[in-house]
Amino acid sequence: GEWSQFADVDAELLEKAFSAGITPFMTKKLSFNEGYDSLYIFDFDVMTQANSDSGTSRKLQRTAAGGSKLFGHTKGEDDGYAEVLGGLGEGAAAKAGSGVGAKF
Questions:
Q1: CA separation for the pair 41, 102 (Å, rounded)
Q2: Cβ–Cβ under 8 Å, residues 21 and 43
Q3: Of 34, 26, 38, 25, nearest to 7 (Cα)?
Q4: What is the DSSP string of 31-50?
Q5: Which of 101, 87, 90, 102 has its CA nearest to residue 6?
Q6: Measured between alpha carbons, how far is 75 from 96 in angstroms, rounded to an integer?
Q7: Is the full-model pTM beyond 0.70?
């Protein structure tokens, strides 16, 4: 699959956190999260996003506007990353890493 682009408002928020060196960056204020109130944790050191409620994690890519790359996830590469966040419940490893990569 292809990398998915964040909405402009979300990309701006992530870019500000990245530029300020805030890692991990935790937020619920994402356009796709409205009405869900899930806590998302962005680790810019390993370029990973995790949903603390579902245990799902995916890779992030920071590119120039309009940039694109094919998604290159290798099974096991970041699977289970969300488990280290703790308290995510049974089955987190099975869901972790199963999402599409995202870029900002």
A1: 14
A2: no
A3: 34
A4: GGGTTT---EEEETTTTEEE
A5: 102
A6: 10
A7: no
